[in-house]
Amino acid sequence: MMLLSCLFAPQRASAAWGHNPYAPSSLPGVAGVTAVAAVSDSVGGCYVAASTSTGLYLLHVLGDGSPDPAWPSPGRLLSAAVGATDLQIVTAIGSGVWVSWKLGTPSDVFVSRVTGAGNLAPNIVTGGINLTSESQFSEQAYGLRIAVSPTTGALFMAWSQEFYDVSNGRRNTDVYAALVAQNSNLISWNGAVANFQYSDEYGPVVACTPEGDLAVVFNYSGARVFKSVNPANGEVGVLMQLNSNSSSSSQVAAKVPPILVGCSGRRFLVFSWSYYFANG
Questions:
Q1: pTM of the model as a whole
Q2: 213, 260 in Cβ contact below 8 A?
């Protein structure tokens, strides 16, 4: 059983939801939950992605805290595989939601879309779209982040992926990205994803502007790097280093994820933290 509680500011309180986190609403049939993510449905309820002992499900919880009776019980099955982690969920343009996750060790990255009526979107099957089935993705994925383009409804995704470099016998980490169209077709960037070919230690963050521009920020050898991405082909545009990582500098990107916000006027706002240390 999964338990939910909805907390509101006093002037916006719902008459139906329980407000006590020690006595939350329950969702029958959802058992063995190991990971969960949620997003508002904009009408008082929410969409909840839950990794359970029987697979990955998406639930629609109404404004009164009860499961949507129009949806299958206990929810729409996204994947029958057990053990999904790094759940990400975001509202889709029009209706419904996008959900992404990673699964397995070594891990693959998946994405799925569900309509507001609780059905899998066109071109989506149970199990989702596997973005990392190719042989180059042979190691662990982590730091998965997603954002929706307000102009096209496409889903922009980025994550870090470890791989084994046979040239030096070491494990390296690159940042990968993918764009999935609103009709759930994968937009091909060099065969499915764009490899930024930069080491990332903590996972990227992504954002879209209202005009549809894409960008990603990640760490590279102690520096924090900003890159714009061409939505048409995944090519990297603007590259900006947000802090110094030279040997003569004492400024290093902190082990805290940055905040990246897409703004109108085709601009991005980045909040980034650094720390300083004394040389010698």
A1: 0.80
A2: no
